[in-house]
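Hi, here's the filled form for the chain we discussed.

Project: internal
Contact: R.S.
Residues: 96
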Amino acid sequence: MLSQPDPLFDAAPDGVFDLHGMRVAEAVPAVRGFIALWRARHPGALLHVITGKGRGSRGRPALRPAIGRLLREELRGDVREWARDVDDGGFVIRIR
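And the returned structure, exactly as it came back:
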């Protein structure tokens, strides 16, 4: 049985933003700006935001949960759909 194509995972992203090395306080506004810029210039674009898996964090991962909250809450009006990426080190996002 063939599986249905998944538009979030079967296409190359239009833009990629790697947050490695950023703290939550830097990354959250940076992702806001990244999504706002792409939404203004290329509505409907597919974006990949790389957070990493949190292995370099002291204690529990902080960046990935913070970006997930941002997508679920504040940016939900700017984002059509999103999911964790295949290796769970970021997010694939389709903007409105």
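Let me know if anything looks off before we file it.
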